[in-house]
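MODEL INPUT / OUTPUT PAIR
PAIR INDEX: 1
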Amino acid sequence: MSNPNLPLYLRPVHELLVQLEREEITNLELVESFLSQIEKHDSELGAFIVVYSEEARKLARAADKAKANGHAVGPFHGFPVAVKDIIDIEGKITTGGSKVWEQRRSPLTATVVRRMFDAGMIVLGKTHTVEFAMGTFGTNRHMGSPKNPWDLKSHRVPGGSSAGTGVSVAAGMAPWGIGTDTGGSVRIPSAWCGLAGLKTTIGRVSVHGILPLSHTLDTPGPMCRCVEDTALLYRLMAGPDPQDTRTLIKSVEDPIPGLHNGVSGLKLARLPDSELESVHKDVADAYEESLQILEGLGAQLCEVTLPRSFAEMGVLVGRIIGAEGYSYVGELIDDDTLPVDDDVRPRIAIGRDMSARDYLLTLREQQQIKAEFDSALIGIDALLTPTTAEPAPRIEDIDQSGTAAGFTRPVNLVERCAVVLPNGFTAQGLPTSLQIVCAPYQEALALRVGWAYEQATEWHQRFPSGLD
């Protein structure tokens, strides 16, 4: 159990659920604790594009009343969640982070949100995203760039594109949240904001009702304060949906029964030294310590030779996103009269001059690399990497022509899943992060490894200061 003196807004979800079941707290008290944090701090941090305050209070009261009358729909009835602003909720504004779409009203409710509603959950609000979800730093020139809560003295970026979700959870403005990941957009903000996050396998979670960037690579995923909460939210999100036929291919393994099984006997691979040459020293030190901890828990560590460099694989991801992203929003980025983020335009413009032949050859190469990668990792339960090469930078130090996705993009390319979680702090007090990469559809295994590591450390129990 966590510190019993923690305020409600900093307690993990799995403990809050116990308190709700025991009637130690009400849903209204819980919702109010997060709304209070939003009211105190979001003007500075900028996590939310809109907050449904009165609606959330009304639904919380209704949930408390239903429970009192014996009509709870399940353990999550009345429980709050934050949702990235590329995910449709019928009748509400969904901007996709674009000033061009600031009055776009959602025609339907995304399947992932429908699952939340069916469980009785309450959406606190929509969180900021990089425009069209196309960026790894978390900046947005026109709609606002959220501030990383781990440094209140300067504006450090939270990571993107699920920037607002990362900030909202890290700052105690939401207990957990939904992001999406095309090249790292769940994992990078989770890493820089000190959270656990899960990049799901294509077809695990429906993308129906989520504004597309790359239909080949887009994956929704949970962003939480700890691995157990991540497993709980993933279990809610995942499952078959006729509106997304890829979710019908393989049934979902419930991650909860095996979550506490440990890592003894598992074979875990470290990255080749060549992939770690440009990694920040504090990040590299935290990575090496993480390997030692897992080995101490009984895992077998081994070296692996990768068929392609991560940099090479990352370039291919950029081409796929550019080509497919341009098919969705090309007319917007090509119109210089529209208020489109000038940092985003060139990322999507990659697809403007790409021929159909080149695009199809890129997809063919993707499948070849996937096969090579699978072959290289035969017998390996998980590949361990840092999540990012650097800690969160100051906004003025960013090179917008670059990317923070050096370790995350390749996972999308080879269609694997990955859990990230805190594994240390830099000398400046900024979170570092470990990435645990598993084979397609092995989310339960990735979560199991992550939980074992988390229980042997205390990094997930730290919170940004100055947000009381």
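PAIR INDEX: 2
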Amino acid sequence: MAKESIQQDRNFDDLAQRFKKNIYGGLKGDIRLAVLERDCQARLPIYPTGPKTDKPWRILDAGGGQGQFSLQWAKAGHDVVICDISSEMLKLAEAQITLLQLENRVTLIHSSVQDLHRHLAGKNQFDFVICHAVMEWLQEPQLLLPCLLDYLAPGAYLSLTFYNLHSLIYKNLLRTNFKKIINQDYGGSRGSLTPINPQDPEQVFEWIKQLPLSVLCHSGIRVFHDYIFNEEHRAREPENLLQLELEFSQREPYRSLGRYIHVLLQRNEDVNPSIL
């Protein structure tokens, strides 16, 4: 099967409905959301389910697709900007926004993360930036974090997830797809939900160290779910599976086997933006 090109960033116009079903829907989506909510609720000073705040946060969902995670912030009274390169993903977000009557709280921008500054009319810093499952679809993933840093106000927070190369290697080893490992053939086929650039967490953490960012939280998402190859077994005890995913998501060595890695970061407050 033809491989996805790594010469350009991936646009999901052709896969929007599959993303909605396979990534955000079902037990996979429940696990993802549970880990994100647990991490953010424990570390952020405000959260949608917490007490109301006098001053709403300004929130950016960068490459946010249908806005599944960020719309709960809009429901709680915060101002949300969702940008995405895919018009079809934004249509899914728009349908949800209309359903929830959040038109006054959410702005949709059809743009890549890299070009977003052209659409913000000078209001380019946010209290909280969400960037989930974007890095691994970029031609130059190493440029994403410096780009996101420009959107972070001093002291602001960044929730970052990326597709874990170690998980992909381990799953192929278990399935005896040894040729893929030998050839380091990790990029997804055309039409696949496997990204073009799965990321080595050690490399991502090196990029983080080079920037004025502090790590507040580090978790794995789906640390064992995806290795249960029998679908009947996977669905046998969903509540226990979800609870155990949460329990092991921050324990090594299980954390490092998560299909995705979640890192909650904070921009250091004592950095002069002019020297960056």
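PAIR 2 NOTE: The two ends are 43 Å apart (CA to CA).
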